[in-house]
Amino acid sequence: MSDLVNAISGKDGSAVAGETTLEITEWTYEPSIAAPKYASNLTQGHKVAVAAVQDGSGTITCPVTASGLVLNLGEVVDLALYGPINVSLTALITSHPITVDVNDGNPTMIAYSFEPRSKPVFSAGSSS
For a designed S-S bond to 114, which of 22, 68, 72, 91 qualifies (C-beta 3.0 to 4.6 A apart)? Predict the structure, then answer.
């Protein structure tokens, strides 16, 4: 069977900050690692990468409501991100660019960027 037939949708994704379920249009989390390189007499003239400290970053995109900002810069929140893969972590809000609809001048979307403050926990999510 084709992987396209078995592709998993993110349509049921959600995000929870503390006790508040956020209204979101999408979320992302990109785990990464530092990969320092070294060369030695045993690496045959090439640098070799070594998996080092884990890191990551992500975004939560929310529509703006009458109450305005839901999360503030520098705020530390417990996030539970649900979708085909669930991610739970404590995160620091690092930026929140606002996308403005020039048709009527109202801010319409805020993309909160965050950095992890704890090791993320990954688990299987919904497959619908």
Answer: 91
The residues, any chain, with a CB within 8 Å of residue 59's CB and separated by 6 or more, are: 26, 27, 28, 111, 112, 113, 114
Q: Are 86 and 29 in contact (CB under 8 A)?
A: no
pTM of the model: 0.78
Angstrom distance (rounded) from CA 101 to CA 108: 6
- What are residue 119's phi and psi, to 5 degrees? -70, 125
Over residues 58-103, the pLDDT tens digits come to 999 888 877 777 889 999 999 999 888 889 999 999 999 888 888 8
CA–CA separation, 128 vs 115, rounded Å?
Answer: 28
